[in-house]
Specification:
The chain is of the alpha/beta class. The protein has 23 helices and 42 strands.
Length: 841
């Protein structure tokens, strides 16, 4: 294949067919469990085999998504699924869980692994780590620029895949806990409810930050559309161009794949351009407005779909007048309209009114179609006003054309075959068919060729009869004949030999992609032994429990130390700080910690693009004598084993099972902070069998999003909305995002202008400290960013006293209610126990 792979979504069978028939080189799909789109129809195991065979016959690769975090109790089930995928012949699996990647590398080395975008892969050290885990391809974070991607392609040693069309997440994928903590449905488990699509209002110091926002959907990006920029992507060396949309209708898949296939073929032929029809069809099939994402830098306000979180279609015209007596509306058209199309009126009062055009009149007469400039009258069950905008959200003709590519028995796909025919009198006709990849099959007629009396076989006869390939994915290319003159065969024999040859060719192509079958019982035994070996290596005696506190400013650090913190994580992203923290401030922080008997751990930001790494590497080296370790939530920090003594694995690494826990320990982690999405029982299973001490989050507003887009800067930008004139309003007060029910989600902006959104309610499990100690947890963390020094001092003092009394009182000591009451008074929006008792779906 020349040029990048075109990779399409297949959320169900029709979408798979649509992708294949419209020119996808590969498809990605999920089975009914362990994938990041649990709401899609997905594929049952038996249907999966059929889907893989269907695609392979048509020279299309199949990647199966197993891109969720996996709990310990699910390891055998997910391993059985991987065995089924391996036996079915999938070309690769898409994986998020780092521990699962290593299991595949060690137990299923023949199964190719692609690192999901949920791994937040965005720098070179992370690619190095993934490569060491056996990964062949990385699906990059959507927040990278084209120049950054080109650098990673040149230096990373992995195939790179990027999204080029479809929905964008507001937060870095794999780092979003919004749906999880607010609604109990985790994006890391394939259950995201998309709370980013809900309305929010930006507040500063308790009052609305802007008098008039461009719309209420301040966390909803426009759709990505890079169709006009394919030449730049190809020049960057990107290996696969991915279309988002496993939740989309097959008509969407058919249309988008058809256009991108056409554009890539046009580019390969040397005359790239995007026609107006192609632009219109892409917009018509589904769009929230379009942007180029972060490929050419931060677009600021231009990234966002402020006024509409769902499909807006294309502009159709404006209301001329509404006739309430007839419940009809007159529309002045700016675009064609046909009976069967769906239109939506953005009414001045009351939101949206939608209708399918079943009756249309022009000058009082029925019409099937109307051109731009025409005034049409259509029924509308809702009041509209003159000047209201009208959009066409569904084009019936486009939908029919798309459905025709996957709902018909006739194939759009056409693979040219070489036909070689040999026939002699008294012998069967022998037919050999060969595809462009070199796969071939032969078949012979059931009866020998006889001497012709009237109609001998000719090349033209063979070409006409053998070339009848209408409902197959094949077409006749070259025809080579060794034909004795004057022989004949019944036409039904020619039809039958063609059918058998093609059937055998399909079988050859399917078999070539199937591995040697791996027995399920054998794999299950190997997995049990593999997981069991990692449960046996327990940590040494952990000693006195440790109270850790994460802070973002010197005042918070001093308060935490004064209240009794054992370890302070600082500075992290430095939320709200006017500048990057330097060596002098870190040295002073270390002195404060030493005076108070605490240790300072240098806290690296979880997001570190390659351009930012030199500063942090240099800072770490320069102040090494002043800190006792490095806290890293960026996987790249673990790419060089033992590189940083005292390395602590932070919770953004999504440690959800013992495989990932053991992997990080082997890569140099001295302590591992578990995922906040685990239940108390799951924490117990991990902590009691951990090879290194484990830490859990026990208090504070947990970060739920980290984004390259700054809501504060974009809404308060005094320039053109692209962020180029941002005067750093984020430094001028305390900002929150207020949701529909009145909860305020704190917002902070770091010195790299990334925005961090925190949960509205504080996590609080102070009453569970004794149980967590019995579970084997050795460190308890208070999240203190964006908090005042007074708040931090009060909270840390409570946990210091509780931890100390637990140690003194023994395993049966119970926490008196007064401690939670003191904490409750500090959190007016309420407290939450997070997932310790409810878990995640």
């Amino acid at each position: 294949m020349s040029g990048p792979e075109l990779l399409a979504p297949a959320g169900n069978w029709d979408a798979l067919t649509a992708a294949v028939q419209n020119g996808a080189d590969a498809v990605y799909l999920g089975v009914t469990s362990f994938n990041a789109r649990q709401s899609a129809a997905n594929f049952e195991p038996r249907e999966l085999v059929r889907a893989v065979d269907y695609a392979h016959v048509r020279d299309v690769r199949v990647y199966a998504a197993v891109n969720v975090l996996v709990a310990d109790r699910e390891l055998e089930a997910v391993a059985a699924l991987l065995g089924d995928l391996y036996n079915a012949g999938v070309d690769a699996v898409i994986v998020q869980d780092l521990g699962l990647m290593r299991l595949i590398r060690d137990l299923l080395p023949g199964l190719e692994v692609h690192a999901s975008t949920q791994t937040t892969a965005h720098n070179l050290p992370t690619l190095e780590l993934l490569k060491g885990l056996g990964v062949r391809r990385a699906v990059l974070a959507r927040e990278l620029s084209l120049d950054e991607i080109a650098f990673l392609r040149e230096q990373g040693g992995l195939e790179l895949e990027v999204f080029v069309h479809g929905a964008l997440c507001f937060s870095y994928s794999g780092q979003c806990l919004m749906s999880s903590l607010v609604g109990g449905r985790s994006g890391n488990r394939g259950r995201c409810t998309q709370p980013c699509s809900l309305p929010y209002t930006l507040y500063r110091d308790g009052t609305p930050a802007v008098a008039s926002a461009p719309g209420p959907y301040v966390l909803r990006p426009r759709d990505l559309n890079l169709s006009a920029h394919l030449p730049e992507l190809v020049r960057a060396g990107i290996d696969a161009l991915k279309i988002e949309g496993r939740m989309r209708r097959p008509e969407y898949v058919a249309t988008v794949v058809r256009i991108y296939r056409r554009l890539l073929d046009r580019l390969a032929a040397g005359y790239f351009h995007v026609t107006e029809d192609e632009q219109r069809d892409l917009a018509q099939i589904f769009n929230r407005g379009y942007s180029t994402g972060y490929f050419f830098g931060r677009p600021g306000r231009l990234l966002m779909a402020y006024s509409r979180p769902s499909n807006r279609g294309i502009a159709l015209g404006r209301v001329r007048r509404y006739l309430p007596a007839h419940k009809t509306v007159e529309i002045i058209l700016d675009a064609p309209l046909h009976v069967g199309d769906t239109v939506e009126v953005w009414v001045s009062v009351g939101g949206r009114v939608s209708t399918v055009v079943r009756d249309m009149r022009v000058n009082g007469r029925p019409a099937e179609t109307a051109a731009p400039g025409t005034v049409v009258t259509v029924p509308l069950a809702g009041r509209a006003r003159p000047g209201d905008r009208v959009f066409k959200t569904e084009d019936a003709a486009l939908e029919r054309r798309a459905r025709g590519t996957f709902a018909s028995a006739r194939e759009e796909k056409s693979i040219p075959l070489s036909f070689r025919v040999s026939v002699r009198g008294g012998a069967p006709l022998r037919l050999e068919v060969t595809d462009p990849s070199g796969f071939s099959a032969t078949a012979e007629t059931q009866v020998p060729a006889a001497q012709a009396r009237r109609h001998p076989l000719t090349v033209d006869t063979l070409k006409a009869q053998l070339g009848r390939l209408g409902n197959t994915p094949f077409s006749m290319g070259e025809l080579y004949c060794e034909l004795d003159g004057g022989v004949m065969l019944p036409l039904r024999e020619l039809n039958e030999v063609r059918r058998r040859a093609l059937e055998r060719l399909e079988g050859v192509k399917i078999a070539a992609r199937r591995p040697q079958v791996l027995a399920p019982d054998e794999l299950a035994t190997r997995v049990r032994d593999y997981v069991g070996a990692r449960a046996a290596a327990r940590a040494t005696q952990r000693g006195r429990p440790v109270l850790t506190v994460s802070v973002g400013d010197p005042a918070g650090l001093e308060a935490a130390v004064d209240a009794g913190a054992d370890v302070v994580y600082f500075p992290g992203e430095g939320l709200g700080a006017p500048h990057d923290v330097g060596p002098e401030e870190l040295s002073e922080a270390a002195r404060v910690c030493r005076r108070g008997g605490a240790s300072l751990v240098l806290w690296w930001p979880r997001i570190l693009h390659d351009r930012e790494l030199p500063r942090w590497f240099g800072l770490t080296e320069k102040i090494a004598p002043f800190f006792s370790g490095v806290l890293a939530g960026n996987a790249g920090a673990f790419s060089r084993p033992k590189a940083h003594p005292g390395l602590v694995a932070d919770y953004p690494l999504n440690v959800f099972n013992r495989l990932t826990l053991c992997l990080l320990a082997e890569l140099g982690a001295a302590r591992v902070i578990l995922s906040p999405e685990l239940t108390l029982d799951q924490v117990r299973e991990l902590a009691l069998n951990a090879p290194v001490p484990v830490e859990v989050l026990v208090h504070g507003a947990l970060p739920v999003m980290v984004s390259e887009h700054c809501v504060v800067g974009s809404l308060m930008d005094t320039g053109g909305g692209d962020g180029s004139h941002c005067a750093a309003p984020c430094r001028t007060g305390r900002f929150t995002l207020k949701d529909r029910v009145g909860l305020d989600f704190p917002v902070g902006t770091d010195t790299a202008c990334r925005m961090h959104v925190f949960n509205a309610k504080d996590l609080c499990v102070v009453e569970q400290i004794p149980e967590l100690l019995r579970c084997g947890v050795s460190s308890f963390r208070v999240e203190g960013r964006l908090r005042t020094a007074g708040y931090l001092h009060a909270v840390v003092a409570v946990y210091r006293e509780v931890v100390d009394r637990c140690v003194a009182g023994g395993p049966d000591w119970q926490v008196p209610p007064k401690y939670k009451e003191r904490l409750q008074a500090l959190s007016p929006q309420g407290l939450t126990s997070g997932h310790y008792f409810r878990g995640v779906l």
